[in-house]
Amino acid sequence: VTHSIPACIGSMTINGKQLDSESPVSIFAVNKCYETVQDGTFFDGSGFAALVREGYKVRSDVNISLEFRTTAAHGALLGVSSAKVDAIGLEIVHGKVLFHVNNGAGRITATYEPRGTNSLCDGKWHKLQANKSKHRISLIIDGNLVHTDNPYTQSTSADTNNPIYVGGYPADVKQNCLTSKSSFRGCLRNLVFTKGQHTELFDFSRAFDLRGVFPHSCPGAEH
């Protein structure tokens, strides 16, 4: 077995001597244990998860769905970019959810503004769906649909070739459709990309780079 166990381990003794887990000599990807946990992936607000090392090609159509919960009013949810301007991005800015798309001609944004300023940042689960169909984009949050007019109707394909960065991105990586530098703090689950008949559910434990991200559980409540 070469992979780690998603579990809590406590009170370990070797030859009758209790191991000191409070001040280990070294530690890697070990979080504290919570009395109540939920399924999902916990982002501690310091990093990101990187998926699809060889690069994800958005092209003309993609439907992205995920669930999130947070108490922070700012944070990058997801970005896929290219070396050029083509990119897509999802982020929370001032408690609003923004879905940006650039098919090469210019960035367009669908914005979901909740009625109450903090209503999406209440620590409860919210369902997000972002759809790009050629030059059209829309955003559905908790069943509420927002779409936006795109003046660039001739430009239909986001020719991306970079990894999918979730919850933030490295300082040396350019994201053409994210404005927020803040990493997401909170929990995500059920991240699915759908293209036509092909549906892909992303497992964060298979990310090729994880920083400040704990893929197997979310604390039951913010501490």
Number of strands: 17
Query: Per the principal axes of the C-alpha atoms, what is the gross shape?
Result: elongated
Helicity, as a percent range: under 10%
CATH 2nd-level architecture: Sandwich
- Rg result: 19 Å
> CATH top level?
Mainly Beta
Number of helices: 0
Low-confidence stretches: none
Distance between the termini: 33 Å
Report the sheet-strand fraction: 35-45%
Class by SSE composition: mainly beta
Q: Oligomerization state of this entry? A: single chain
Overall pLDDT metric = 92
Could you say what the CATH topology is called? Jelly Rolls
Structure description:
This protein has 223 residues and is an all-beta fold. It has one domain: Jelly Rolls. It contains no helices and 17 strands.
Keywords:
two-stranded antiparallel sheet, 223 residues, Jelly Rolls, mainly beta, 13-stranded antiparallel β-sheet
Would you summarize the structure shown here?
This is LAMA1 protein. Helix content is 0%, strand content 43%.
SSE layout and pairings?
Elements: E1 13-14, E2 17-18, E3 37-38, E4 41-51, E5 61-69, E6 75-80, E7 87-93, E8 96-102, E9 107-112, E10 126-133, E11 136-141, E12 144-148, E13 164-166, E14 185-195, E15 198-201, E16 209-214, E17 218-219
